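Hi support team,

I'm filing this because I wasn't sure whether my run with acetyl coenzyme *A finished correctly. The job status page said complete, but I'd like someone to confirm that the output block is well-formed before I use it downstream. Pasting the exact inputs I used:
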Amino acid sequence: MSTEPQVEGTLSVTDSRTGQTYEFPITDGTVRATDLRQIKTSDDDFGLMTYDPAFMNTASCRSAITYLDGDAGVLRYRGYPIEQLAAKSTFLEVAWLLIHGELPTAKELEGFEKQIVDRMVVQAEVGESIKAFARNAHPMGILEAGFGHLSTLYPEAKQVESGPERMEAIINTIAKMPTIGAMAFRHNQGKDIVAPDPSLDYSTNILKMFFGADYEVDPRLVRALDILLILHADHEQNCSTSAVRAVGSSQVDTYSAVNAGIAALYGPLHGGANEAVLVMLREIGSADNVSDFMDKVKSREALLMGFGHRVYKNYDPRATIIKGACDDVFEVTGVNPLLEVAVALEATALADDFFIQRKLYPNVDFYSGLIYEALGIPTEMFTVMFAIGRAPGWVAQWLEMIQDKDQKISRPRQIYIGSGERDYVEVSAR
Ligand code: ACO
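And here is everything the job wrote out:
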C-alpha cells in the first residue's frame, strides 16, 4: 500500500462571481483546502477558504495508526480489529503496536514491559506538590498539574527532533500516567502514596497503587482492566488527540503536548462522559424511572450520557466488548444494581424513534463506568482511567505528527465578523 497521496481524479469548480473554472486534484478522497486559495476575485483577494467550525469534514492529517468506519462500527489499530486485540493482546503490546506500527517480537515486548514498569515510579517532588491540593480536588486537575511538573523535570524532552529523547518521553508518559493518577486518588482519600512494584505487571501495579500494596488482585479483574485500557488506547483524531497534535505542533515538549490531551479529555462531552453516565444512572435510580428520564431527554432537558458519537452512527464496537467484559467482572464482584438501569435505558433508546432517526447508539462510555465502579474506582477517577488508556494513542499520534513532513504549526484561519475600524473612546466619554 502506497503511503504517498494518489491522484484519483479532479474536481472542477466554477466560481459564479468571476465565471472562472478551476481544476483541483482529488487524492485520498479529499481536496486540499489550500488549493482553494487559487480561487480569487482579484489579485489582492486572500482566496477561498473552507468554513468548518467543529472540523466536521476536515482531515487534519494523514495517519497510518487507527482506522475507524463510524457507519459500519469498525475500529482497527494498525489494521488489527479491536475485537481481536481485546481478545488476544495486552495493553502494553497494543501500546507498542500503536507507537511502532507492528506487533512486537517476544523479546521486544519483554523489553518494553520491563522499561515501562521500571519507569512507573514518579519523582518524590511530584508527590509533594500533590499534597498541596485540596482533599476534594478533582484528580484530572491533579493529573494536569502532574504532567506540567514532569515537563519541568525533563527539560531534555524539549529536543523533539531527537529520536532517543522522543522515545524517553513516550515511555515516561505511558509509565507515569497511572502513577500520578494513583497519587491523586490516594490524596483524595487521605491515604499515603503506594509506590509501583517493578516486579509486577502494569495493570496489577495500577490496582495495587490505587488500593494499597496489600490489595489482593484477582487476575480476572486485572484482565478486565487491561481490556478496558486496550479499548481506550486510540481513536484517531478525537478531541483530545487533536489537542495533543495541535499543541505539539508548536514543538513544545511531549509532556506539555500530552497535557493538552488531558485537559480536553476532562470535558464532559469527551472523557468526562463516563463519569456523567454514572451520575445519570444514580439519578435515574431504578429501571422504573427510565421512561420519565427518556421524556426529559426528548424534550431536551437532559442528554442521554454515553449515547451518540461524532463518528459512530452505529453501535460503538468498544461498547459491545465492554458489555461482555461486564459479565466477567460482575462474576467476581457481584452485579452492580445500576446495570439493570443501564440495560433498560439502552433497550428503550434503541427502540425509540428519537434515537433511531439520529442514529444514536451506546458509545464506549456507556458501560465502562459500571466496570470501574465494580473495581472499586470512584466516579471522579473514571476520566483518569480513560487518560491512562489513551496515553499510548496520544504519544503515537504525537510521534507521527512530529515526523510528518507536511506538518507545520497548527494555526486555523477565521472569518472575521466583528466591528469595522473605529476610534478609541476615552473612558470618561463612554
Ligand atoms: N442524548 C440526546 N440527544 C442527543 C445525544 C444524546 N446523548 N447525542 C446527540 N443527540 C442529538 C442532538 O441533540 C442532535 O439532535 P438535533 O439534530 O435534533 O439537534 C443530534 O442528536 C445530533 O447530535 P450532535 O450534538 O449534533 O452530534 P455531535 O457529533 O456534535 O456530538 C456527542 C457528539 C458530543 C458525543 C453527543 O452525541 C453527546 O453529547 N453525547 C453525550 C456525551 C457522551 O456520551 N460523550 C462521549 C463521546 S465518546 C468519547 O468521547 C469517548
